[in-house]
Amino acid sequence: MADHEETGIIGPGEVPVTLIVNGRRREVRVEPRTTLLDALRQKLDLTGTKRVCDSGACGACTVLLDGVAVYACMTLAVSCDERSVQTIEGLAHGESLHPIQQAFIDEDGYQCGFCTPGQIMAAKSLIGRTPEPTRQQIIEGMSGNLCRCGAYQKIIAAVERAARAQSNGSV
Ligand code: FES
Ligand code: FES
Questions:
Q1: How many structural domains are present in the chain?
Q2: Would you call 35 exposed, middle or buried from its count of C-beta atoms within 10 A (0-12, 13-18, 19+)?
Q3: What are residue 128's phi and psi, to 5 degrees?
Q4: Judgement on whether residues 12 and 75 belong to the same structural domain of the protein
Q5: Which of these, 48, 52, 84, 99, is most buried using a 10 Å CB contact count?
Q6: Could you tell me the distance, in angstroms and rounded to a whole number, from the CA of residue 71 to the centre of ligand 1?
Q7: Confidence tier at 167 by pLDDT (50, 70, 90)
Q8: Closest CA to 124 of 96, 101, 150
Q9: Best substitution site from 51, 148, 155, 159 to test ligand 2's pocket, by max atoms within 8 Å of Cβ?
Q10: Residue 34, by phi and psi: left (phi above 0), alpha (psi -120 to 50) or beta?
Q11: Report field, pTM of the whole predicted structure over 0.85
Q12: Which pLDDT tens digit goes with each residue over 34-80?
């Protein structure tokens, strides 16, 4: 953390922003050009949200903003002031994984795992707005998240499993 943050002094060109991250109010000071991705990773040390393309093309940085999936690399932190941000770090309860996380494990829905946080957050948004998605709706709903390992079949199976878990009342 930079010295000026520890002393509460706002650096040149910085503005204060309050993010409600995983249910907790977090105050950060950012330049107006700072993305939500940089605020999460560099200011709050929440590195579960991944940077790959940094240009809105891959979905690795997907988080939920007021419950809706967004690319954090394409979202300015200042536009998130006083808004709810959910990241992959906010899903598990202690040692208990969120049912979507468990579904990805049960279906082996990853290889290297680098895209997985974004995939899981996208799945959470999809299942939140479409509780019982068809396979085609899952394919379309997850189409903004690329997987360089090509684990798509198992990712889709994981989302199907997670949706079933939701319909059973556990998501
Ligand atoms: S890192 Fe944000 S979309 Fe690729
Ligand atoms: S599991 Fe490797 S990029 Fe998706």
A1: 2
A2: buried
A3: -65, -35
A4: yes
A5: 99
A6: 6
A7: confident
A8: 101
A9: 148
A10: beta
A11: yes
A12: 999 999 999 999 999 999 999 999 999 999 999 999 999 999 999 99
